[in-house]
Amino acid sequence: MKINMGSTDRAIRLLVAAVLVGGYFSGIIVGTLGIVALIVAAVFTLTTLVGFCPLYTILGINTCSRSAKR
Question: Which residue ranges traverse the bilayer (predicted)?
């Protein structure tokens, strides 16, 4: 599994995940939408930590710089 996410992409995903989790726990995002937001935040966090996004592979996207590829 090669990394296909660059550092900027990973930072943005982590920021979005933090906003979604914060919105859920502050009561801004509630109900079914809140649960979906938590699931998306979990997926974003996991893909950020691993550096690999399966959807990027399917779509042929690679945001990783050439020097950082493994």
Answer: 12-29, 35-61
Closest by CA to 48, choosing from 3, 69, 20, 32, is: 3
Q: Which of 17, 52, 10 lies closest to 37 in space, CA to CA?
A: 17
pLDDT at 68: 54
Dist CA 14 CA 38 (whole Å): 13
Q: What is the dihedral of CA 29, 33, 31, 19, to 10 degrees?
A: -30
Provide DSSP, 23-67. Answer: HHHTTSS-HHHHHHHHHHHHHHHHHHHHT--HHHHHHT---S-GG
Find the angle CA(33)-CA(39)-CA(44) to the nearest 5 degrees: 120
pLDDT in tens, 38-60: 999 999 999 999 999 999 999 99
